[in-house]
Every structure is written in C-alpha cells, then in structure tokens.
Amino acid sequence: MTAFQRISMLIVCLILISGCAQQTAGQNPTSTPDLATTPALTVATPTVASQTDPAATQSCQPGFRSFDHELLATEPLCIPENPERIIALDMASVEMVLLTEKTLLATSGWILSELPLLAPQFAERLTTVEDVGYPANLEKVALLKPDLILAVGGTTVGETIDVDQAQQIAPVVFADPVIYNDWKLGMRLWADVLNASDMYEAMLANYEQRISELRAALGDRIQQEISVIATSTYGTSLWMPDTPPGAILSDVGLQRPPSQRFVGEAAQAEYGAAQYIMISDERLDLADGDAIFFFTYASSNPETAAAEDAHLKAFVEKPIWQSLNAVKAGQAFLVPGYWWRSQTFILANRVLDDLFTHLAGTQATTPVLIP
C-alpha cells in the first residue's frame, strides 16, 4: 500500500469534519449545457506550462516515476509506473483509460450520461463506473482508493476537482484546459500518463490516413466554406476553429465562412467572446455557408432529450433558418451529439465519417483502428 492509499481514510474523516464535499451529480454539466456551465463549451485559455528542469524534480519512491509534460497545468509530480485504479474526469481521459484496459473506478455523471450514447461500445463497461459528481466529491473519491486521478482545470466552469485536497488522496495529473480544444492534445497527454504513447502514435497515423482519403474524395469540394453551430434550449452558438470539431475541419483543410474564422483575441475583438459565440435568431445569417453542420448535446435523460428534440424541430422551421443559402440548397446537416464532444479519438473519427457522407458523398474505406 502506498503512502497515498494509507492516508485515504484519514482524508475521508477530514472532509466529513470540514464539510468540504463538492457538487454532486445532480448538478453536473448535462443539466445546464450552455457556454457558462459545460466543459466542452468553456473557453480554454492555455496556462503557463511548467518550466521546472526535469533533472531538478524530486525523486520518486519505488513504483513511481516523475512526470512532466507541456500540457500539465502544475509542477512535475510522481505518478504510479503502472496505475490500475483510476478516476478520470474528462472525455479524453475516460476513453484512454478504457482503451488501455485499465480499471476506471469513477468519472463525472455528465460523462456517464452522454458517453454510452456517443460511443455505444463503452456502454456495458460504464455500468460499473461510479459517479463522483462535478466537481468531484472528495468523500467519494477517497472511499474508492484510486492510485491515480486524471483531471482538467482552469476553465470558466471551474475545476473538475479540488486539486489541493485530492492530491492528498492520490497523485493528480491536472491538465491544461487547452486540451479541450483538439482531440489530439488530450489523447496525447493521457497516453503519455498511462505509458501508452505508442497507442497514441498509432491513433494519429490512422486518423491522418483517413484524413488523406477524405481530402482525395473531396477534390475541389475541399474549398467549400463549412459552418459549424450548436443549438439547444440554452441558445445557438457558432463554433470557431479552436473548438473540437473546428480543429478537425482544419486538419482536413476545409474552409470556414468569414464569420467563423476568428480565434483568440481576434474573436474577442469581433464578438466579445471566443471559441463558442452565442448568437440570436436575428443573427442566424452568421451561420450560413456552403454547408452547415448543426447539432445539440446528447442526454440519456428522457425529459431532457425530448425537450432538445422539440427545440430542434422548432429551430429548423424558423423562417430565418429556412432563408439561409445552405438550407435552401439542402446542405444543412443535423448531426449527432458526438460533434459537441469530439475531444477523443473515437468521437473525432465519427465526425470524419459525417464529412465523408455529407461532403464527399461516400464512405471511408480506411477503418478506424483501435491499437
């Protein structure tokens, strides 16, 4: 038993005494998926990466190794050489833990609600995974006795876990929230944490092979301007190039409408916001393009799913929506919620499949390979 595990029960007692239990699953991001309250829609500004000289880091006890990374939001830390009991608190880390056949003890309730719908191949395995809430409830975390916690912090939503207290339970690899912007960032980081760098390289090679096939299938159609928007009962937003599906379109080489080419400070100057730009119905003209991909979030809650379905049916009947050039040309495509959460290898490839279908009019011959 490691030092982290020996003090787990002490931490439980301290948490109970101090009353510092965190937000529960009933308050997870699925219940309010707008720009201010859902991880996939938070403006993820890179933090300053650690500049600590790896040679100067602390030595680790047997069975642990020193870990530093450009996508780490903290100083280097000691992590298990072969972690087996893991709590993962974002989509990419959950997928990587499952693909490496590690034991996923727990995650946030919103992930347990959405991921079985977005990646059904994981549904059965997720039935045994605990919900520790969002932010993670430290009492639950301590009782599960993890040997590693994977988390992301520093967004407008807040932290996925209280790192200062959680690191007394187990090592916490705390990622820079910039990993939310591009599936390749998060999957690379978590692969490095889990000693699965070769797996990530194989994923990337497979993804790039499928991108090359898509480019060839598109031909001159790669010059089309592709609009990406999300719409739900909480509003409609333009998704810029520095969002998960935006990064995929950029990888392919597809163009964006002028209204959706702004990144960072340029987006702030144009819209007073970045990445996810809320628009009114009166400004749906900003959503036009040669083709439009639009979507809402997935939910396993029947009432929520019914409400979002009703919203979508009303949305596409709006006269201003019907007036858009892409809509009139039959080039507006309602796509599933994996566009919203395309922060993982599997979900990014599902977005590619839609691009093959709707833009190239074909199916990919290169399969998605899981190493």
Write the topology of this structure.
Layout: H1 3-6, H2 8-18, E1 64-67, E2 77-80, E3 85-88, H3 91-99, E4 103-107, H4 109-118, H5 123-126, E5 130-131, H6 138-144, E6 148-152, H7 163-166, E7 172-175, H8 183-193, H9 197-218, E8 226-232, E9 235-239, H10 244-252, H11 265-271, E10 276-279, E11 291-295, H12 302-315, H13 319-322, H14 325-328, E12 332-334, H15 345-360
Parallel strand pairs: 3-4, 3-6, 4-5, 6-7, 8-11, 11-12
Antiparallel strand pairs: 1-2, 8-9, 9-10
Subcellular location: Cell envelope
Keywords: Coiled coil, Signal, Transport
Organism: Chloroflexus aurantiacus (strain ATCC 29366 / DSM 635 / J-10-fl)
Tell me what the structure shows.
The chain contains 15 helices and twelve strands. α2 packs antiparallel against α6 (about 140-145). Mean pLDDT is about 90; it is low at about 5-40 and about 45-55. The strands form three sheets. A five-stranded parallel beta sheet has the order 5-4-3-6-7. The longest helix has 22 residues, at about 195-220. The chain has helices spanning about 5, 10-20, 90-100, 110-120, 125, 140-145, 165, 185-195, 195-220, 245-250, 265-270, 300-315, 320, 325-330, 345-360; strands at about 65, 75-80, 85-90, 105, 130, 150, 170-175, 225-230, 235-240, 275-280, 290-295, 330-335. The radius of gyration is 21 Å and the shape is globular. One of its GO terms (biological process) is iron coordination entity transport.
